[in-house]
Amino acid sequence: MRTRQAMSLEQFNAAPAAEAHELLKPCLDVPRWIEEITAARPFASLDALLDAARNAADPFTAEELEGALAHHPRIGERAAGASAEATMSRSEQSGVDARDAATVAALAAGNKAYEEKFGRVFLIRAAGRSAKEMLSALQERLGHTPEEEEPVVAEQLREIAVLRLKQNLLEQSTALRGA
């Protein structure tokens, strides 16, 4: 079966559940979240879909958070592969310039410190942020306790999921209007 990376809201509303799952999974690989959104169709607007996506992602269980984080590369590292998720990740992290050796090294050191402290990859909505902004957030969050960091990670994951879902639907809708 061919992986579909984008579809219009109308196509999403009418798609068989398996196709809706294909669109949602690279946005956030949490089966409960995918099922809730698929079951809530049809949506009257993109905003209604995005609201449902935010609501379904709040709260995450600890297991859902850990499972979703397993799919995210470290900030400053390029995701490998041709999957929709890897492609999105590379685009989102475009603010990290590999030629800025000092920032890349600081991100690598910060990633290592974060993983040692929290036992998981540092997650931030990278889209629209510069490498220096992400580094600053990383350094700030290293001062958090695990209890303080948990809701921050969950919020970042929600932001990433909603942004990816919006981009997938808008990308296709824009292409259809231009045709």
TrEMBL record:
Record flagged with keyword Lyase: yes
Matches recorded under NCBIfam families: PRK13798.1, UraD_2
One Pfam family linked to the record: OHCU_decarbox
Record field: transmembrane: none
Protein name per the record: 2-oxo-4-hydroxy-4-carboxy-5-ureidoimidazoline decarboxylase
Sorted UniProt keywords: Decarboxylase, Lyase, Purine metabolism
EC number(s) per entry: 4.1.1.97
Record InterPro entries: OHCU_decarboxylase, OHCU_decarboxylase-2, OHCU_decarboxylase_sf
GO molecular function: 2-oxo-4-hydroxy-4-carboxy-5-ureidoimidazoline decarboxylase activity
Presence of keyword NAD: no
Domain of life according to the entry: Bacteria
Pathway(s) served: Purine metabolism; urate degradation; (S)-allantoin from urate: step 3/3
Reactions it catalyzes: 5-hydroxy-2-oxo-4-ureido-2,5-dihydro-1H-imidazole-5-carboxylate + H(+) = (S)-allantoin + CO2
Location of the Oxo-4-hydroxy-4-carboxy-5-ureidoimidazoline decarboxylase domain: 13-166
